[in-house]
Design brief:
Elements (H helix, E strand, L loop, with lengths): L3 E4 L4 E4 L5 H13 L4 E5 L5 H4 L2 H5 L6 E3 L1 H22 L12 E2 L5 E4 L2 E5 L13 E3 L5 E5 L15 H14 L5 E4 L9 H18 L5 H15 L6 H14 L8
Parallel strand pairs: 2-3, 3-4, 4-5, 9-10
Antiparallel strand pairs: 1-2, 6-7, 7-8, 8-9
Helix pairs in contact: 5-6, 6-7
This protein binds zinc ion.
Zinc ion binds next to helix 2.
């Protein structure tokens, strides 16, 4: 997965943090090798693989960690549940003490660091319960997109906002110039050509879940996995897609939510 550093004349700005303690420590070490102070951290959405490493990233620096109010509230609301899920998976590599964003920003507002101006887009629910891509510069050719596009990896749809995600794909693809570089959370960089791939991944997944025979849930799940592997013959992040099958089937009323 990706987090980013933007170097300005006298400062650094980070976009997102990483998931594990050791990755985040390495990211901090890289930051320190520039010999410039960290002036802000910008968050692209509310998922733990993007905020879990904030404690190591800021390392006690008093910096604003900036996101829309909805992203801040979602992280605070869901962090206990993420702890339950991630601790068994990652052990001590999931930070014991998490740092949350501390500075709210409204849709379309900017933050300037030296001559770099970042503008936030408050998307609301999309890939996660609350998403907030950032655009660098007035020409909008440099975009920190978060997980609105995955770089040819399997995707996480378990939060169930696929309708909003599809709408946001159309909204964002109209907004940015054709030659914009899209810096994404997993893989990439992506470009305007990748919107179609992301749309087809989501549509194929929802169709596969809808079309499966849920009288036999194990067979239904296997059928969805087979269809997604036919679309994308890769194992990268496959577990995220598999985690999404049951929640989306429940959301579509195909299985009991408790099953
Ligand atoms: Zn992610």
């Amino acid at each position: 997965m990706n987090a980013y550093l933007v170097e300005t004349e006298s400062s650094l700005v980070a976009v997102d943090s990483l998931l594990t303690v050791s990755e985040s420590r390495a990211f901090r070490a890289e930051l320190e090798s520039f010999g410039k102070p960290l002036r802000a951290v910008l968050l692209t959405h509310s998922h733990p693989d993007h905020y879990g490493g904030l404690t190591e990233l800021v390392a006690g620096d008093d910096v604003p960690i900036i996101a829309p109010r909805g992203v801040i509230d979602t992280i605070a609301r869901d962090d206990d549940v993420k702890e339950q899920i991630l601790r068994p998976m990652f052990g001590d590599e999931w930070a014991k003490e998490r740092t949350f964003p501390n500075t709210a920003i409204a849709d379309g507002e900017t933050i300037a660091v030296d001559d770099a101006v970042f503008r936030v887009i408050d998307l609301g629910p999309s890939e996660s319960p609350h998403d907030s891509p950032w655009v660098l510069g007035d020409d909008e050719r440099t975009v920190f997109l978060g997980d609105q596009i995955y770089g040819r990896r399997h995707c996480f749809l378990a939060d169930g906002f696929f309708r909003e995600w599809l709408q946001n794909i159309e909204r964002l693809r109209r907004r940015f110039p054709a030659d914009a570089v899209l810096y994404i959370g997993h893989g990439g960089p992506a470009s305007a050509a990748d919107w179609d791939w992301q749309r087809s991944y989501i549509v194929t997944f929802v169709d596969a879940v809808t079309g499966a025979d849920w009288t036999d849930p194990d067979r239904a799940r296997a059928a969805v996995v087979a269809e997604m592997k036919a679309l994308l013959p890769s194992e990268e992040l496959q577990f995220l897609m598999e985690l999404s099958i049951q929640p989306v089937a429940a959301q579509l009323g195909l299985v009991d939510a408790a099953a």
